[in-house]
Design a protein that fits this description.
The structure holds two protein chains of two kinds.
Chain A lengths: L3 E4 L2 E4 L6 H8 L22 E4 L2 E4 L10 E3 L3 H17 L14 H8 L16 E2 L5 E4 L8 H9 L5 E4 L6 E4 L26 E3 L12 H4 L21
Parallel strand pairs in A: 1-5
Antiparallel strand pairs in A: 1-2, 3-4, 3-5, 6-7, 7-10, 8-9
Chain B lengths: L3 E7 L5 H7 L4 H5 L3 E3 L13 E7 L2 E3 H13 E7 H6 L11 H11 L17 E6 L9 E3 L6 H12 L15
Parallel strand pairs in B: 1-2, 1-3, 3-5, 5-7
Antiparallel strand pairs in B: 4-6
The chains are: A alpha+beta, B alpha/beta.
InterPro entries (chain B): Hydrogenase_assoc-protein, NADH_UbQ_OxRdtase-like_20kDa, NiFe_Hase_small_N_sf
Protein name (chain B): NADP oxidoreductase
Keywords (chain B): 3Fe-4S, Iron, Iron-sulfur, Metal-binding, Oxidoreductase
Amino acid sequence: MSNTLFIDGQEIPFAPGQTIMDASLEAGIYIPHLCHKPGLTPHGSCKLCTVEVDGRSVSACTLPAAAGMKVDNNTPALQEVRKTLVQMLFVEGNHLCPTCSKTGDCTLQALGYHFGMLDGHFPPFYPRREVDASHPDLVLDRDRCVLCELCVRASREQDGKNVFAISGRGASAHIIVNTSSGKLGDSDLTLDDAAAHICPVGAILPKNHGCEVPFGRRTFDLHSVAESDVAHVGLQKTEHHDE
Amino acid sequence: MSKIRIATTSLAGCFGCHMSFLDMDERLVGLLEYVEFDRSPLTDIKHCQPCDIGLVEGGLCNAENVHVLREFRQQCKILIAVGACAINGGVPAMRNHYTVQECLEEAYLNGVGVDNPMIPSDPELPLLLSKVHPLHEVVRVDYYLPGCPPSGDAFFTILSDLLAGKEPSLPKAMLHYD
């Protein structure tokens, strides 16, 4: 049997060791995801990449591809489940888009747009979480953290540092900083670290550059999250096409 | 043919959604061929008669907001939650991190530039809720119009669809939470 699998009936190749997500990204097929980033160890926590293989729900970012595997991805039922997951992520944090300088560049928000989410559906938690503004160049706003651990992984695997971790369980899980004070300002995180820019939401943001690109002209104002060539765009202003 | 009756109100909001409603500009003239306004800041009518469509901006931050929302739900066949605050509490919900007492002390006693510090206690003032809530926690909401504010185009789209007897929908490009 050749090394191919089927996603919604479309046959695509995969290399041994690749996950369903790896193969689909290479083939240009969009499987929604939030906690996954190519190059980092898959985490499988956001569950937005939930697909069905032989009737079982699995995470596409962690399940190795297998020859002849039949994967259901873009089905109305799965899209509905994924929308509910996004709603749950919205209500369990403090995701007030108009107050957040990540708005328009936020993957969680873009997933909401992608699934046509109109409201949070569930009663919001409004949890009280700590903001850490002790770092000169970066702010850590736990209100918006979705516990995807992208910063944890980027710091360990790409920056060769170990700045972040998740502490606590269930509703009290939260991101912590690996310093004796627990403050980001005492860590060795710098503005050019991968971990400083990888946050898919507005939990880790550069200071002083929040509003250089106006609302309405940001990545997901102009593109869908499903476009495979949408690179992550930082909040620091670069030259605009109409300037 | 009798006109479609529309009521609007702003609860814990900033009237930005109403300003954006007016951004329909000259299309409002055409709209008025088919609709008339009942209770609304635009008419200054204080209580809602039976209406076809209720547009509610803002979330719920005090007892009066809840009272007005219930009146709207009772009188309006179709209730639309308009804007971020109505949908998830929005900017006013940022006070949910603090107790009401802390908010009052910051605003009326300890805030920068406060003259004659005193927490207002007039019995006519509506009591604050302990937290700001979105509309759907208190009443059934028929449609949501997200945005901070929703654009004039978004208002025109949802009203045009409803007037045409269609299930309202927004093109994805017009769906925004900011």
